[in-house]
Write a structure and sequence with these properties.
The structure holds two protein chains of two kinds. Chain A is mainly α. In chain A, 75% of the residues lie in helices and 0% in strands. The longest helix of chain A is centred in the N-terminal third of the chain and has 53 residues, at 8-60. Chain A starts with 7 loop residues before the first helix and ends in a 5-residue tail after the last helix. Helix content of chain B is 36%, strand content 22%. The radius of gyration of chain B is 19 Å and the shape is globular. Classes of the chains: A mainly alpha, B alpha/beta. The A-B interface holds A 190, 192-203, 206, 210-211, 214-215, 217, 309-310 and B 98, 100, 103, 130, 133-134, 136-138, 140-142, 144, 146-148, 156-157, 160-161, 193, 195, 206, 209-210, 213.
Chain lengths: 310, 300
């Protein structure tokens, strides 16, 4: 079989078309790269703003004082800038929220993944995820006007603003973060591992607790870390229901301000821009950032350590 | 040795089995049922010491009848291999013994799998799969150690059976690891994660885990299909060393493997037991055309 060679002009045309396409390819790649870079640029920008703005604050208040002073009263005439009361406020509300969300979320996940019939899971899982779609303002009022009065029936001396009520409601809000991700992780555990447990004579519950749960631990750990980050950063519920007074205490029945609640208070308040009091929210922001970052790094380490090896 | 002779004699003196004769004339395109075979109890070779016996056993997933009218017996403390082309139902049969099918909807057992000597029908609806699984162990196609330490993997079954005595558990774990030829490699790192072991070691760990509970039957589901030849050889040696200690039923794709390790071999085709006999008989002088064609590699 003989074939006539392509005319020169056609070959050149094809090469030109290809060149044009490769230019288009490169343009598209650049556009996509820019989109990806934007998230990094924004993050870097936020960190820079935090660093620059807080540096004016730290010019007036020493870092040591900031980290060790036990009183936080930037709005008072006699202003003091000890971040500790805000940190304890944040940690206590977070701890209460996790004490609610981790066990309940995990149990829900185990039930959904190992026990629930297929149809029930398909309905229940999205329904549960709606919990985190409720506006947090609504949760804040739910805590203040429903949960706290309920708690006051059990503990009559509980103040109207307290970390317990706020923390419990925050916990309810983050249940789906824990349950949904944990369920995904547990359902990802290979069938052969489950069958291995059943073949050894384990029943459903023991299979779930002794084999499936530990096998999914890395995914479940990420779910916990996400829940922690969400709780540390949550603002509205604690601002409404936990009170706004910075209070150095680990007692959840006390009112206290969290870092986020303080930032809201100042941003909406009447402190003049540029004053030390105003600048303090950036310092608080840095602490919040470091806290969340720390939890995320811990989570990352944890995830690597318990990486699924099956 | 005495039992061996008796069995062989019984085998030789057994009247020619009508089913096999019928099937001898069958063509590969026909199922044993189409040629009018009616499996009856005398298809069971004369085994004196039976551990488990299938009687008109059948299994269906939904409307798909995977296994039909199986009548075979498995000799106590011997190795029985199940061979056959993909989709013939050999793994389905293996997983019926410990009711693995119960984990998924749509399963239906018919007939009986009698566990001797107490003649419990393993697939009876009123027999609890969980309790029944306490008497059997299974080794899977791929090593599936639990996300626990080597020690805890082997101790798992004991803990499931409520054993609390630490000294006894330790002793049993060591014994099982020795039986699985894994003790020397693991004795210094019993509390390290099982996932640190190589694939072949993991599979031997799974065998140790299976042996630790003193099972009456160990079911092997193509235990070497994910392993390299060296690791395969070690597993085969291990199975060989368990002969005369525990009843073993092994599904294998590898006919040389069946020849090397099995006392008995059953050839399944389209859900029926086409031939069931001593391994050397099946491989040197198969009683059925289908079997012959399968073992000579003409289909499958």
């Amino acid at each position: 079989m003989t074939s006539t060679p392509l005319p020169q002009t056609e070959v050149l045309g094809a090469i030109r078309r290809r060149q044009r396409r490769s230019l288009l390819d490169r343009g598209a790649a650049m556009l996509l790269g820019a989109a990806a870079a934007s998230s990094i640029i924004i993050t870097v920008g936020i960190v820079m703003v935090l660093a620059i703005e807080s540096s004016t604050f730290f010019g007036e208040v020493g870092i040591l004082t900031f980290l060790t002073d036990t009183v936080w009263t930037p709005l008072f005439a006699d202003a003091r800038f000890g971040i500790l009361p805000l940190v304890t406020g944040t940690l206590v509300t977070t701890a209460v929220a996790l004490a609610v969300a981790m066990p309940i979320g995990t149990i829900v996940a185990i039930w959904l993944s190992e026990y629930a019939p297929h149809g029930v899971r398909e309905v229940l899982k999205p329904a549960l995820e709606l919990l985190s779609a409720v506006p947090t303002v609504v949760y804040g009022y739910f805590a203040l006007l429903f949960v706290t009065p309920l708690l006051q029936k059990l503990m009559p001396e509980l103040p109207t603003f307290n970390m317990l009520g706020a923390g419990i409601v925050m916990g309810i809000m983050i249940i789906p973060y824990v349950s949904s991700l944990s369920e995904d992780a547990m359902r990802g555990v290979p069938r052969i591992l489950r069958e291995g447990a059943y073949a050894m004579g384990a029943n459903k519950l023991l299979t779930a607790l002794k084999v499936v749960y530990p096998a999914a631990l890395s995914g479940i750990g990420s779910a916990y870390v996400l829940a922690i980050s969400r709780a540390v950063g949550e603002t509205m519920i604690v601002a409404i229901a936990a009170g706004m007074q910075p209070n150095l205490t680990l007692d959840p029945t006390q009112p206290a301000a969290t870092i986020t609640a303080f930032i809201v208070q100042v941003s909406l308040g009447d402190l003049p821009h540029g004053s030390v009091g105003y600048q303090s929210i950036f310092a608080a922001g840095v602490v919040l950032f470091v806290l969340t970052l720390g939890f995320n790094i811990a989570g990352y380490r944890l995830r690597k350590r318990f990486r699924e090896a099956y | 040795m005495v039992t061996h002779c008796t069995l062989a004699d019984a085998q030789d003196s057994a009247p020619s089995r009508p089913i096999t004769n019928l099937l001898r004339r069958a063509t590969p395109t026909m199922t044993p049922h189409e040629v009018g075979a009616d499996p009856v109890t005398d298809q069971i070779p004369a085994i004196a010491d039976i551990k488990v016996q299938l009687r008109n056993f059948g299994f269906a997933y939904g409307s798909n009848q995977v296994l039909k009218d199986l009548n075979v017996a498995f000799e106590n403390k011997k190795v029985t291999a199940l061979i056959g082309p993909s989709g013939c139902g050999k793994t389905t049969l293996l997983r019926s013994f410990n009711r693995m099918h119960d984990l998924y909807p749509g399963n239906r057992y018919t007939g009986e799998i009698l566990l001797l000597p107490d003649r419990i029908n393993l697939v009876a609806p009123d027999v609890s799969p969980t309790e029944m699984r306490m008497r059997l162990s299974m080794v899977f196609q791929k090593p599936n150690p639990f996300p626990k330490s080597i020690f805890e993997n082997v101790a798992f079954g004991l803990r499931m059976r409520g054993v609390r005595d630490k000294a006894r558990i330790r002793e049993k774990v060591e014994q099982s690891l020795r039986d699985a030829a894994l003790w020397d490699e693991t004795k210094d790192r019993l509390h390290k994660p099982a996932y640190d072991l190589s694939g072949g070691q993991q599979q031997r760990l799974c065998i140790a885990r299976a042996l630790a509970v003193d099972p009456e039957i160990v079911l092997f589901d193509e235990p070497t299909s994910a392993l390299d030849p060296t690791a395969t050889l070690r597993i085969e040696e291990l199975i060989d060393s368990l002969r005369n200690r525990v009843t073993i039923i092994i599904v294998t794709h590898n006919m040389q493997q069946a020849q090397r390790i099995a006392d008995w071999t059953g050839f399944l085709y389209l859900g029926s037991m086409v031939e069931f006999d001593r391994t050397e008989k099946v491989f040197t002088n198969p009683g059925n055309k289908l079997t012959e064609q399968y073992i000579t590699g003409r289909f499958g």
